[in-house]
Amino acid sequence: MKAYITRLATAIPVQRVENPPGRMRKKTGIIARHIASDCETAGDLAYQAAEKLLAVTGCRESIDFLILCTQSPDYFLPPTACVLQDRLRLRKSCGAFDFDLGCSGYIYGLGIAKGFIESGQAEHVLLLTSETYSKYIHPEDGATLPLFGDGATATLVEAVDADSSGIDGLVYGTDGSGAKDLVVPVGGQRHPYETTPTEESKDKYGNVRTNRNLYMSGSGIMNFALDVVPKALEEILSKTHLVRNDIDYYVFHQANRFMLQYLQQECGLEGLPYWNDVAEIGNTVSSSIPIALCDMMQANAGRELHHVLLMGFGVGLSWGGCVVDLTHMRTKC
User: Fold this and answer.
1) Where are the beta strands (DSSP E) in 148-296?
2) 108 near 80, Cβ under 8 Å?
3) Which end of the chain is more exposed for a tag (fewer CB within 10 A), N or C?
4) Across 31-40, average pLDDT
5) Is the residue at 206 inside a domain?
6) Which residues are catalytic?
7) Are 83 and 43 contained in the same domain?
8) Of residues 197, 77, 216, the one with CA closest to residue 137
9) Does 120 share its domain with 171?
């Protein structure tokens, strides 16, 4: 049995915030983002995406594992996935756990699901991604506020009796020396809220943040991506015995238009089918690739997609990529 993506669903917050016209909006290509309300959590968004998927599958009773990728959990403990098992009315013999990863998280989740299925431990894995990064960002931080949107996705990965792989060429990587380039410094056990004074800073561009807010080094992340992504792409193609023209679509983490265009050039993908559509969503972290997959499939309705190359990169610093066969997708997003 081989692991295949068979269904996808998304949940986007209702609240839409438009970025002001100017250089930042033009460079990033992000016109608007959707932001969770004050009382709306990553768990709530994940629940919405999962319910949308389960409502059309009729497979609620057959889910063997529920996996949630999030860096904005509802609680430090218990795992939000365990809470969702109950909210979604999944059977008690269903395994459930969270894993903490960002922009490469969807790839890692697909790898975990593939491992469970192809080792015979599961037949149906519900992979959820959900983030509310907006709650980590200072309202006066013009460097990060216009970039990040909130959102969640649900992916059903199932065992299919097939000879070829539905998730292939998996590549992973980590460079923890760059952890400081994308971080919320205060809030965990290293620097607890209770014992760490709040420190506010303003950079030379007038962007304000505290040590309790998200900090991102734009140049650091850009240099990291330009270093690791082209190499990872070559490794995936080598593992799968494919060449660039064999790929039906390239879907990279939807960071922003500028970075995506730069990576397209550096990876030698100009003129090839390459998804770049951040205008109304922005950077939704671990949800960006599956949201992009849904949009891409709707734009290519009726077309069989055998080889779609996925690439995630970001917080950690971490990266991952693979090729997926979407010919077993049974419904539109």
Assistant:
1) 151-160, 167-174, 182-183, 200-202, 208-210, 215-216, 249-252, 274-275
2) no
3) N
4) 97
5) no
6) 103, 253, 283
7) yes
8) 216
9) no
